[in-house]
From TrEMBL:
GO terms for molecular function: calcium ion binding. Keywords: Calcium, Signal. This is EF-hand domain-containing protein. It comes from Bursaphelenchus okinawaensis. Pfam families: EF-hand_5 (PF13202). The keyword Calcium applies. Residues 67-93, 133-168 form the EF-hand domain. Residues 1-15 form the signal peptide.
Length: 200
């Protein structure tokens, strides 16, 4: 009998979900007094502003990870050189992504491969990429971005267009789709609303 109870207990316990938790990274497990004690780094029973910032454990962990990422030589300090190199890499990465985006855009939409997007190609970009339909005044707006008046937007002009275009001057594609007309011979049944039924 004892053996059966032992087996049932072992099977029951092993069936429970098991999760390994790191109490130093789990805010839910830390009580307010533990948070205070952890943040009071000089043990003087009061928190300076810098110590108070330590009470926000997710923030501390996030900033610690960021610090470790910047401190490339792992000496416990982020030098100006390390700081600038990190953000220069981020800037270059963002530049590379933009270059790739605009390169793909021209590959896809510059149909005559003249390295500029004419008004029809630009409308195609707006419809296919952004699901937007230009209004009648689009030609005037387009000309405002075509600074050299050659009938197309080169890369520099398109980048300005992409950043500064008044998108409120466009309509969503759905809004301009024609409403389906009733097919000939198809009758729609007219029904009264519930409140109309009782009054008749």
């Amino acid at each position: 009998m004892k053996l059966i109870i032992l087996v049932v207990l072992i099977v029951g316990v092993s069936a429970l979900p098991f999760e390994i938790r790191d109490p130093t990274r789990d805010v839910a497990l830390e009580q307010p007094e533990e948070t205070f004690a952890r943040s009071d780094t000089d043990n003087d029973e009061k928190l300076s502003f810098n110590q108070f910032l330590l009470t926000d454990l997710p923030y501390v962990q996030l900033k610690q990870d960021e610090f470790n990422n910047l401190d490339t030589d792992h000496d416990g300090f982020v030098t100006r050189k390390e700081y600038e190199q990190h953000y220069q890499k981020e800037k270059e990465s963002a530049y590379d992504l933009k270059a790739e985006y605009f390169g793909q855009l021209y590959d896809q939409f510059d149909e005559n491969m003249d390295l500029k997007l004419d008004i029809d190609e630009t409308k195609n970009v707006l419809e296919k990429r952004f699901l937007l339909k230009p209004r009648e005044n689009f030609g005037e707006i387009f000309q405002g971005f075509d600074k050299n008046h050659d009938g197309g937007l080169d890369l520099e002009e398109y980048i300005k267009f992409d950043h500064e275009f008044p998108f409120q001057e466009l309509d969503p594609l759905d809004a301009v789709e024609p409403f389906p007309q009733k097919a000939e011979g198809l009758e729609f049944k007219k029904e009264k609303l519930p409140m109309m039924k009782s009054s008749s």
